[in-house]
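Take a specimen:
=====
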Amino acid sequence: MAIYHLHAKVISRATGRSAVAAAAYRAASRLHDLRLDRDHDFSNKSGVVHSEILLPDGAPERFLDRATLWNEVEAIEKRKDAQLAREVEFSIPREMTQAQGIALARDFVREQFVERGMVADLNVHWDIGEDGQAKPHAHVMLSTRRIEVRTGEAVHGRRDGIPHPERSGRGAYDFAPDPGPDGAERGGRSAQAHDPSPDRDPGDAARHPAEALDAGEALAAAGRTARLIAAARLRHEGLGLAQNQPFIGFGAKERSWNDRDLLLTWRERWASLANERLAELDLDVRIDHRSFAAQGIDLEPQNKIGPAGSRRPERGEPCERVADHLEIARRNGERLLAEPHVALEALTRQQSTFTRQDLARFVDRHTADAAQFSAVMVRVEACPELVALGKDGHGRERFSTREMIGVEQRLEEASLAMGQSQGHAVPLAVRRAAMARDGLGDEQALAVGEVTKSRDLSVVVGYAGTGKSTMLGVARVAWEEAGYRVRGAALSGIAAEGLEAGSGIESRTLASLERAWARGFDLLERGDVLVVDEAGMVGSRQMERVLSVARGVGAKVVLVGDPEQLQAIEAGGAFRAVAERVGSVEITTVRRQREGWQQVATKELATGRTDEALGRYEAAGLVRGHDTLEEARAGVVAGWDEARQAAPEDSQIMLAHRRVDVRALNEAAREIRRDAGELGDDVLVPTAQGERVFADGERVYFLRNDRELGVKNGTLGMVRGITGSVEAGDLVLSVQLDGPGGTGRGRVVSVSVADYDALDHGYAATIHKSQGVTVDRAHVLATGSMDRHGAYVALSRHRESVSVHWGRDDVGDLDGLVKRLSRERLKDTTLDYPHVRDRDAGFARRRGLHVPESEIVVGRGKAAPGPQKDRQAEAVRTPDPASAQRKRGMFDGLDLSVRGRGRTAEKDVSAGMDAGAGKGKSGVEREAPASPFAGLRLPRVQRAQVPAGLGGFVPAGLGGFVPGGDPLHQAVEQYARAVRDIGRMVEQDLPVLEHQKKAWLDASTVLERLRPGAVIALETAVKHEPEIRQALYGLEGLARARRLVEGLEHEDKVRHSPELRAARFVKAWDGLSREQQGVALKELKRDAQLESLLRQKGHELGVRKGSTLDHGLQPQRTRSLSRSRGRDMDMGM
């Protein structure tokens, strides 16, 4: 992470400070101080790369002159302890160029200060430190008074910055030095003659008392007085200050700018804006505004030295700041030497893995010198907590911590255990009725059937606009009919609100849910179903906590999301990791877009083919380039205005990635509505975002959750009335929220601005806030900060149409736009890399060492109520005695998931269960032999992944190798070749190559297109039918293809024939362990036809008299066998 620093302080006359002197120093310029009648000359100062004064609306242009601005500030303040100005100083990431840093500082200052009504004097310094590295930072001097329009009469009063000379008792400006605490007057020598005391800012040249004037200086003093009077008259006449003429200048002090919460807002916004810009520039660093304590980093924060303090040691002068800074750095370095894990914990706050460069940056910031840096690096790299994971896709070594690995291993264990546990069955009749609901598509019905199965963990991966909320609403009804309590949660308030509105599931944020659990309220119970929406935005730590709590009490969790949309803020891509391990059901039929080609584009965005999707919209004339970013903003607003006039009933939204762009779009849209007479009288409203003007008919965004109002961060509404005033403290906005009936047609809330000020205009929004939103038309401003995940969200919010505008000065030509919007930033997890335990097993195997697996079977006891139960519940381990002797199978360790079935997906015991070495609905999973490649996973295959133009034909690249073969035989042969190649690699403990994985995926995709379910059917046939397995390896070409197609036909017969299912069940029985047999008998109860057939004709089908299966088929035996299994587990303890 880059360095974060933002500090605010007040420039006060009580400490001898001068606003003019401070401004001169920060701008490296020469300014004349009228109050002191002296020059402050710092024009020889180096390192100032940008100086600019930014004015709020209505401010006079004379304030663009630095000397005029700060002399008027000095003039209007009469108290000897007056607060002259506020200064905000912040560090700019050194990874940026000067131009980039200046642009970032200007955007921040304009958004957070100028828009609130402050005059801002911005100076960017690009100093070079002793280590040769740049130390870029910005100084912003801010006015403390508002700009007001007054009459000439008021101007002549005492508080005006330029009083009339004839009315001033002490000459023009009343600028005689104020008496100091001891009665002496304060003045000062010139900046050149100033000899600052230790640790004093050279810019504070006016701090020291003036020397008493002797008789020889009296004439000079008289001359200065004459010049002051003349300057006052000239300025007075130039401003045209007639007795009753209006005058624009500084008015009353604005006390709200002193609010501590506002400073916290500035700190947070600087971090978010800088991080947005770093992402836009593709710089892999971030800053964090939180304190070390808030971040959980056990280090002491270092103070800032500042350029003045940095130069004092060079002159041989003492500097307390430098000494304090180095002392804190040394103490932190000593802390890291003693506890190197502190550095590692800090690095894994927002990312699961990191590079050595990341580590070096962190250590460099928290050590005093090169020797300590080297010592700490050696110590941290030798820390037992540090784990080397291997290289990432860019060839960089990645590292993590044992703590992070432990978190994500517990996440994996909880996921697998819940995926196997089956405690939330829904009656078959209820499930069938739910799946048959009108309006559900095939994939939605399949998803309803999947999530209402008895498994305690289900994962739904749904593309944007595929009707996930509709599906969940149907599932909710089924769960409630079965007697379960259904609850919803999401990371953000607006996502929780959307989940509740779309599915009827009462929902709240995950953070509030966890807080309630910690206090002992709203605890999960065994009969609960927790639906987590937008789960792709949840980090590994929070996901592990939620799953472990649910697992501990026996609740069911349903995760719903899309790993291709916006990524988790915290460390780890947890949703993707869970989906890979327990399997998922996918909903890929896009329903939101009404045009077929737009639905295809959304699928392309969902699968990372951003260039193809943009190509479709570009061909339709909906991707429009502009010369500048400013023109692109104007194009977005013009498109919005044209569309709303053509279809006023349609919902619309303008989207941008950066808040500064959202602000500009909102202002422009509001101006259009104002000119059209669509708004009432303007009312100036102080908000957390700065001053905003609202009126009747205004679109408004709520930006903070509030239970009393019943609004979330992201709720939209329409202003229906404004009463009261800011001055009286009773300003109230009456807002009608958006509802099911449309825009501004929901319930009405009364918002007291004194209590709730998190408001903004609602014509435009950030892309991040729009995830989960659906509108008729969207208008997108594409900027260089976006990636493919943001582009996916932005280009999939609409029903009717979406337009994209971009500026060539921002991202270049169309190719540049495509490149920016195609950048992949998926978060990784430690589970994506080989773990230490895998390498340990490999080490033992290579040396012929046999490390037997534990035969202890641990049963999970009754769960204690509440979250206080140990979240690391004991996992049930099922030993497989045959696994040590059994030859490694070609499918062991492969995840050939199809249509939502992962390697732990449920398979009907009576219809193709791998009874000898697999698992069925019982949730009993085979113990795969240890191997470096045991975790190999291949992508899931979906029919929707096949290009729409494929139809029923095999691409030319897959045809021609089976002379005379039809498309099905050709696809089966190509699939067989790919599987055989992978199987041979796995059996020889060799890594499966990328081209082999791709060949398998391509062949599987084509095969699924031609014959849905064929991949799973072939896998089952290979496992159960020796002839099919022999054909796979022993035959070639058309002969093999014909034999495998026969296998497919046989599997169809097995699924529809109770006799064939019974024969397979009996054949597989002897290969099951005693525990598996008990569970299999329970599963048999779900297939009444099969059970009846086995009881009536069991002996004819091969069931031996007196065997465990024969006894188990007797009604009174089933429960006995189950109890026996339980006794065996207790004995194992």
The domain at 324-401 is CATH 1.10.10 (Arc Repressor Mutant, subunit A). The CA atoms of residues 943 and 1012 lie 7 Å apart.
